[in-house]
Amino acid sequence: MNAPNCSEPSSKYQHHLFPLVYGVAMVLGLPGNLLALYIFLFKVSPRTSSGVYVVNLALADTAILLTLPFRIHYHLHDNTWVFGDMACRVTGALWYANIYISICFMTCICVDRYVAVVHPHRYLRLKNPCGAAAVSVLLWAVLGVALLTFICMGSLESVQDPTSGSRCFESFTRGEWERRIGPYSVISLVFCSLLPSVVILVCYPLAMRRISRIGGGTARRAQRIIFTVLAITLLCFLPYHTVLLLHLLRRMDVIRHCGPANAIYHARRVTMALVSLNTCLDPLLFYVTSKHSRHWRPLRRLWLWCRARREVGIYTLSHAADLGETAASAPRDYCHQRKERSGFSTKTFNQMSSVQ
């Protein structure tokens, strides 16, 4: 529902925007997350607390990536949902839940690295992966209860467009917003977005001073992890949650003018597409988190091979001719250098023969 007396703006572009972005997320994110699960579950030993958080983050990303084909089909068919009400509630709830569980696990990774560098003696007592597993179970339990409660509350009421089919997880009626969507959005924004963002965006830049003074490999790796988390937060999560706050104000009729309301409507579509790209940026976090970089060499070789294939066209026949001439002259140069080093040339041999 838009602002009072404002018609809903045209959003035909989303029928192309969402499938494109979701397709990129699947192509890049699914192999990266599956590779991370394989490495951290079967290759990395011993288990660490950061590794436990990484596995859970990869599981969350993989779960949401498996639901994206349904969303792609929905947007390609003019926002018409054909998979039933239960599938709509499950896939929609999982999509939004991934946003909040991802930022929670990234916060856990940052906290773990911060304690490891700034309080190493305390970390030695707390680095048991069982503690990280307990935190992960608690987060999944809270998420599971919230999801089940949301799904079991019944069907979602949406404002249906007579010119299109059934909508899914958008254009909620005012009653649905006041009964379910509004409270869930406020709670999620405060506890699953605002608080973790404060930890990431405020505490850790301040902690970088102390980390930079320590030096060493552990400190440098902690810096890479924190910078990567900051980049993902600023690129994917912060724009989405900023626009979500404005969207909440619009739905509560705090923002009533049509111009700002329409701008928020379009910004929400763009940031919803942008936030899904965290699933293909998280493998970068997995790489900088792991000490076992050798396990990522196959992915690096694939990237180098693709890069070499793109650059092969810059070479010309003249380059090949130069290379051939260099290769042909190499044996002669080698023999000449060998004779000079030995100090025994043809001229010296003739002089010795004449003396004899």
UniProtKB/TrEMBL annotation:
It is found in: Membrane. Keywords: Adaptive immunity, Disulfide bond, G-protein coupled receptor, Immunity, Membrane, Receptor, Transducer, Transmembrane, Transmembrane helix. GO terms for biological process: adaptive immune response. Its main location: membrane. Signal peptide: none annotated. Residues 32-286 form the G-protein coupled receptors family 1 profile domain. The chain crosses the membrane at residues 20-41, 53-73, 93-111, 132-156, 181-204, 225-249. Pfam families: 7tm_1 (PF00001). It is a multi-pass membrane protein. Gene3D superfamilies: Rhodopsin 7-helix transmembrane proteins. This is G-protein coupled receptors family 1 profile domain-containing protein. The lineage of its organism: Eukaryota, Metazoa, Chordata, Craniata, Vertebrata.
